[in-house]
Amino acid sequence: MKDDGLTLLELIISIAIVGIIVLIIGGAMQLGFRSVESGEKKIEALERMRSSLMVIDSQVQSEIPLMYDDEGERKYYFVGDRGFLQFATNYSIWGMGQGYSIASYTVETEENGKQVLYATENTVGIETTRTVRLFDAFDSIYFEFFYKEPTEEEGMWVEEWTDEFNFPEKIKLHLVEGMNDFSMLIPLRAQGSLAQTSGGSFGTPLTPTQ
């Protein structure tokens, strides 16, 4: 009579096959979970980047020609170079009450060589200052300013704003990672002569920290 039972060898082979199938399924599931997690992190990073760009765009486009009195000398809040930008704005990141805010963006380099961008804000007349980290882990972050003489048809991009009487027409923010240079172009609504556009509003001076 034929024995219908499994031999020890057949049992071992069956267990081995089942084990291999379980390992394959487990590996596939683990890979899937990692892909989902990686996708979620990328989505989160892109959303954070989008939000940060919207904040910068809103603040810069809401820039106002506010000046302050420094021991009898009138000075404007607008300061700009490759790694620092400061200006007065009526748009607050934190949506704090009424009044003008002094916003500043500072580029800093970390120990690993990557650059980060911080936004600092305080309301004119109030000592409280708030800071938030907008971008990090970029190879390079820097600003450029569009300069054009009144008599010139074409202008040029400069990395430091030295004109004491006029605003730049637009500002460009560069976020560089490897060979990729993502640049954001922001036009300024307040343009022209600072002497003509600045009113009689004065604020508490804010000393830039670079």
3D architecture notes:
It is a single chain. It is elongated and about 100 Å long. The longest helix has 54 residues, at 8-61. The strands form 3 sheets. Strands 1, 4, 5, 6, 7, 8 and 11 form a 7-stranded antiparallel sheet that branches. 28% of the residues lie in helices and 36% in strands. It contains 2 helices and 13 strands. It is of the alpha+beta class and 210 residues long. A hairpin with a 5-residue loop joins strand 6 and strand 7. The protein has helices at residues 8-61, 194-197; strands at 63-64, 67-70, 73-76, 79-81, 84-89, 101-109, 115-123, 129-138, 140-147, 156-158, 160-161, 170-177, 180-187. It has one domain. Residues 194-210 have low confidence and may be disordered.
How are the elements arranged and paired?
Blueprint lengths: L7 H54 L1 E2 L2 E4 L2 E4 L2 E3 L2 E6 L11 E9 L5 E9 L5 E10 L1 E8 L8 E3 L1 E2 L8 E8 L2 E8 L6 H4 L13
Antiparallel strand pairs: 1-5, 2-3, 4-5, 4-11, 5-6, 6-7, 7-8, 9-10, 9-12, 12-13
